[in-house]
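Researcher: Go.
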Amino acid sequence: MVLPARAGAAGAEAASKGAVEALRLAQRLRGTRTQQGSGLTFEFTLDSRLDQVAAALRDQALRAGLSAAANVVEGAAKLNVRAQDLIDTGNLLNSIQATEPEVSGGSGEVLITVGAEYGRIQEWGGTIVPREAKALAVPLTEGARKVGSPRGYPGKLEVRWRPASSKGVLVDEQGVAQYALVRQVTIPARPYMRPAVDSHQAEIANAFAAGMRQVVEAAAAK
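Model: Structure:
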C-alpha cells in the first residue's frame, strides 16, 4: 500500500540575478489534500515569485526543495507513529520512506510511501473481517505477537470456543491462550500521515525554500 504525499511546483524562464532574492521571498506553500483510492494525495504550489529562477537551475533546485520538504513529512509521520504507540514490531515505522523526487520541465513530485500493508487502516480506521477463515486470530502474548500468524507458531494450538459465543481462543499445550478468535476487528482511525502535513505547513514550506535556495546560492557563488 502507498500513502503518497505529492508536491508540485511551477517555474518559468527568467534572469538568474534575481533568483536568490526570489527564493528568500518564497517562503509560503499553498496546499490541498484529497483522499484518492488507497492513499492520500498532498498537492503544493509554490509562490509565483519563483518564476525568476533561471531554467538551467530550476529542476535541480526543485529536486533539492522537494527532497527537503519530503524529509520533514517523513520525520513528522514517524513521530506521530511513536506518539500514538503504533509500534509493535517496528514494521509500520520503518516502512515510511520518502522517495527520490521526480522533476522535469519545471514541475515535480515526491512521494512518501508506507509499505506496511496495515498502514492505511491505521490512518483511516475500519473493520477487518476474515476472507477465508472462520475467525481472525489476534495475538495475546509477546511470543504470539513476534510470530504473527498462528501458522508460524512453534507448537500445537487447540481451538476452544466459548459456549453460545462467536469468540474463542487458541491455547498452547500448557493451556495458555496465545490468540483470541473473533469474527471481526474494528480499528479506530489513528492518522499519522495527514497530521504530518497539516500540522507542519510552515516547516515544510521553509524546508522547500531552503533546499532550493542552497542550490541557487551555490550556483551564484561560482
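Model: Helices lie at 19-25, 55-83, 91-95, 119-124, 142-147, 194-198, 201-220.
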